Amino acid sequence: MRVKYKDVAADLARDIRRGTLKPGDRLPTHRELAHRHGLSLGTATKVFSEMEAMGLTIGEVGRGTFVRMNADARAMEFSYETPGKAVVDFSKNHLVLPEQDDIFQAAIAKVLSDPDCDVLDYRNNPGSEYDRLTAWRWLNEDRETPIDSHKAITICSGGQHALMLALMATCRPGQVVAVERLTYPMVRLACEMLRLDVVEVDADRDGIVPESFDRLCRKHDVSALFCIPNVQNPTSTTLSLERRSEIAKIANAHDVTLLEDDAYGFLLEEPPTPLTELAPDRTLYIRTLSKSWAPGLRVCFLVSPGRHKDAVDRAQRASVWMNAPLMASVASEIVSSGQYDLVVRAKRKEVFKRQAIVRRILAGMQIETQPQSMHVLLPLPSNARQDWVVEALAEANVLVSPASQFAAKGERSGLQNGLRLCIGAPRNRAEMENALRTLRAVVEAPQNKEAWR
Predict the structure, then answer these.
(1) Average pLDDT of 90-106?
(2) How far is C-alpha 392 from the geometric centre of its chain's CA atoms?
(3) Which of 136, 298, 345, 370 has CB atoms 3.0–4.6 Å from 158's, for a disulfide?
(4) How many domains does the structure of the chain reveal?
(5) Between 85 and 341, where is the model more confident?
(6) Does residue 113 form part of some domain?
(7) Has residue 81 got a pLDDT over 60?
(8) Model pTM score
(9) Could you give the angle at the alpha carbon of 293 between the alpha carbons of 291 and 297, nearest 5°?
């Protein structure tokens, strides 16, 4: 449960976003705010600190605290960061089932009860031998061609960390990384931080178009291709085995490294052969537990070919030294006990049921998704402004991500006017259904802000 000062700050941010509080308006004094909301003076001070930290207000000695210019945009960001219990959040892509709490606590107790428990000590950079062996056996269960050795695995602090390590190990500043036109937005940020150039490869309803990838490699000196072959985020496409084979051949012909993010493969009963099996010498394979188990676990397995493994481990040392030992050991316990598989099967069923609700509530609207996908791409009508829809939904306590966030060239590319919905995030199906009804009403309302208030 959020502490009360967060609730008061969120209410003020909402008033700024709606225009009730305008740039230059003075806020109540600390004492007035404390009296109005029944807070202590210290708690009221936390409210003002929170507002100033978010860039919503500015304090002037002797005059008071005032709303800053352009604070309305920052207030929208604030509402995403501090959602209350009444808010349905479609913007975060995860699904955690109620039974996972007990499983997680039991796994922690089991790890800590081991007489040889070393979770407070340093471990080897890529992870402990036991945890890597456990991951190696587990990953090989679904592979036709097994990973040669557990030494190919580095245990990372989540999928984003693994992606950063993979880019650091395979690319140098100024080199070119190819991504789909709509893709996981953190790859763009990672490339920006590492000073890598991003180019777009065409994709259709079946995923990456091999001919486009080949043309791109002939036009640019492409160093790496980042892709999500299984249930791609945000389009939900799954690359066919035929296309995967063609992409692997093109990568071999042009000496391109493949960065394969398999965050959503767990949703498929029988996913196609991964790129890492089709081009093992040039593919870095990323398998995070953030989506299949929980984002707070922060465990991801990065499988690297021999020629890149040393560079990956150097990047690990330079960034975090090692994954948090407790989380790695807990992940091993959850996997080896069979609890992971039980939860994944339950999640597949839950996602399928939630998809049925999506199809029923949004019937007749253009949506891009699949029955086994955790996300839905909803293109908006040409007369609907994406930013207005997002804001109107936020005012109705429904948070969504603008589809333009997923554009490889950034939100200003104008590539996509729509919304990305994460259907796993709502706490239950009834809550999700009500929020979808609200969403439909907002999208189909007259396209002006006043009509939505």
Answers:
(1) 91
(2) 23
(3) 298
(4) 3
(5) 341
(6) no
(7) no
(8) 0.80
(9) 95
Per mean pLDDT, which of 4-18, 57-71, 267-281, 384-398 is the most reliable? Answer: 267-281
What is the span of the domain harbouring residue 443? 88-99+340-452
Is the per-residue pLDDT at 74 higher than 70?
no
**For residues 195-204, b (16+ Cβ closer than 10 Å) or e, as one string?**
ebbbbbbebe
Cα separation, 179 vs 324, in Å, equals 30
The DSSP bridge partners found for residue 418 are: 379
Whole-number Cα distances in Å, 421 to 228, 281, 350: 18, 36, 16
CB atoms within 10 A of CB 157: 21
Domain with residue 292: its CATH number is 3.40.640.10
As given in the structure block, the two tokens for residue 168 are: 């650091």
Averaged pLDDT, 196-216: 94
403 and 286 co-located in one domain: no
* Cβ–Cβ < 8 Å for 395, 17: yes
- Peptide bond preceding 234: is omega within 30 degrees of 0, i.e. cis? yes
Answer yes or no: do 67 and 173 share one domain.
no
Per-residue pLDDT tens digits for 396-450: 889 998 888 888 876 544 456 889 999 998 988 999 999 999 999 999 886 555 5
pLDDT at 78 over 90: no
Quick one: 183 and 223 in the same domain?
yes
Alpha-carbon distance of 443 to 403, in angstroms, equals 14
pLDDT tens profile 257-313: 999 999 999 999 999 999 999 999 999 999 999 999 999 999 999 999 999 999 999
Selection from 228, 305, 296 nearest residue 263 by Cα: 228
What are 401's strand-pairing partners? Answer: 420
Q: Are residues 164 and 141 in the same domain?
A: yes
pLDDT at 15: 83
The two three-digit tokens of residue 389, written as one number: 């829809």
Instruction: Give the tokens for residue 412.
Output: 């200003």
Rounded to whole angstroms, the maximal C-alpha distance in the chain is 72
- With a CB cutoff of 8 Å and minimum separation 6, the contacts of 441 are none
Radius of gyration of the chain (CA): 24
3-state secondary structure of 103: helix
Q: Residues 6 or more apart from 31 whose CB is under 8 A from it?
A: 41, 44
- List all residues 6 or more positions away from 447 whose beta carbon is below 8 Å from its beta carbon: 383, 384, 385, 388
